[in-house]
Amino acid sequence: MIDTHSHLFDESFQNDIEECITRCELAHVNRILLVGFSHHTNKLVQEYAKKYKLFYPTAGLHPSEASESYKRDLDKLEQFIKEHKIYAIGECGLDYHYGKENIQAQKELFRGQIELSIQYHLPLIIHMRDATQDTYEILKEYSGKVFGVMHCYSGSLEMAKEFIKLGFYISLGGPVTFKNAKESKRVAEQIDLEYLLVETDCPYLAPTPYRGQRNESSYVKNVVAEIAKIRNMEFWEIEEITEKNAIKLFNMEDRL
């Protein structure tokens, strides 16, 4: 299995990272996309990827990093991309959950990373929270040039299909296992499997039966199991399909 979105470098893992990796191996999670979201975490991701072979590093700037200095931040990110091996740009995107005070800076930071993804032909990892329409409209401006994944997707089935048309995969995480997650289950049931990925977003959003606890990459198996149950398929079928999709999107063949 491949966890396509993990923050195993988070400080909550500092005392048991080795044990977490062992649990991944026991769960047959043999590849993990380790996702950066700031200048600091981008560097951390590289350090972890050099130490542990199962980690595939990314680099990006989360919308919470958006400020008036976005141009300088984009220049710094581009220099980092030139100097390091990464498999995707992100996570990046729009997040209006805590307000829209920095909305313009968010949009400019997002557009800048989209343009970097086009320039360096790398997939985007999109963070979208309470900003579906603006995210869609901005990505649509680059239709035919962009590709990537809508990470931890929580939107509607209808919008999922629209994002797929723009060149994006749909990634489902722990919330699809929650009893009240009707729309996520609907997406899991009806989305074209050719565009489906699975993730944990650990240490956040732990799946049932770990809900409310620290999430970790080995729990991606619970996401796979839930999707298999929803679609009336075998566990190994969803495991195989999502693994193949991840390898294709993130061009992981070079480290197989």
For the residues shown, what is the average pLDDT? Answer: 97
Categorize the overall geometry: globular
What structural category characterises the helix and strand content?
A: alpha/beta
Distance between the termini: 13 Å
SSE layout and pairing:
Blueprint: E1 2-6, H1 17-26, E2 31-34, H2 39-51, E3 55-57, H3 70-83, E4 89-95, H4 103-119, E5 124-129, H5 132-141, E6 148-150, H6 157-165, E7 168-172, H7 182-190, E8 196-198, H8 220-231, H9 235-249
Parallel strand pairs: 1-2, 2-3, 4-5, 5-6, 6-7, 7-8
Describe this protein's structure:
With 256 residues, the protein is of the alpha/beta class. The chain has 9 helices and 8 strands. The chain has helices at 17-26, 39-51, 70-83, 103-119, 132-141, 157-165, 182-190, 220-231, 235-249; strands at 2-6, 31-34, 55-57, 89-95, 124-129, 148-150, 168-172, 196-198. A 5-stranded parallel β-sheet has the order 4-5-6-7-8. Helix 3 (70-83) runs parallel beside helix 4 (103-119) and helix 8 (220-231) packs across helix 9. The longest helix is centred in the middle third of the chain and has 17 residues, at 103-119. It is globular. The two termini are 13 Å apart. The mean pLDDT is 97.
Structural descriptors:
single chain, 256 residues, alpha/beta, 5-stranded parallel β-sheet, globular
